[in-house]
Amino acid sequence: MTEVSSMLTERVQYVASSKENVLKWKDVLQKMHVGKLTHGGRKYAPPNYYETNVIFRNLKHKQAGKVRDAFEKTYLKCQDIQRDQFLLPFFLWQDRLTPNHSTEAIPMERLVEEVGYCMVDTRVGRN
After folding, report:
1. Within-domain flag for 108
2. Could you tell me if 66 and 95 are in contact, meaning their C-beta atoms sit under 8 angstroms apart?
3. Averaged pLDDT for residues 67-71
4. What is the SS3 string spanning the chain?
5. How many domains does the chain have?
6. What is the torsion angle, in degrees rounded to the nearest 10, for the CA atoms of residue 100, residue 103, residue 109 and residue 110?
7. Mind listing the pLDDT tens digit for each residue in 86-110?
8. Is residue 127 part of a domain?
9. pTM as predicted
10. Distance between CA 7 and CA 13 in Å, rounded?
C-alpha cells in the first residue's frame, strides 16, 4: 500500500497514464486487506515487498507453472497499470506462492557474495 500511495502522490509521473486504474487497484487491495473482499476466504496480506532487480526461476520446480501464471497475470495487468511493484506480490500471494512456501526474496548483496552475481549501478543519470 505504501508503494501504491507513493506512486499516486510522490512519483505521479510513473503512473500518469494509468492513474484511474491504479486508484481502482488500490481500492480493491484495501478492501481485501481489511477483509471486505477476500480471495479464497483469505485477506490480502503479502509477507514481503519485492524489489526485483533480478528474478531467478526454477523451471523444474513443482510450482513452476503457478509462478509462470503469476508472471503472466502481472504482465497482462501492466497493460492497465504502468508499474508492477504492487502487482507481482499480489499475484504471487493469490496463488499461495509466498516466501514461506515457494518463493524467496534474497538481498542483492547476498547474490553478489554467495552466487557471484555482478551488480552494475544503472541509476546514474536517472530519476
Report:
1. yes
2. yes
3. 90
4. CHHHHHHHHCCHHHCHHHHHHHHHHHHHHHHHHHCCCCECCECCCCCCCCCCCCCCCCCCCCCHHHHHHHHHHHHHHCCCCCCCCCCHHHHHHHCCCCCCCCCCCCCHHHHHHHHCCCCCCCCCCCC
5. 1
6. 70
7. 888 888 888 887 655 555 667 778 8
8. no
9. 0.72
10. 8
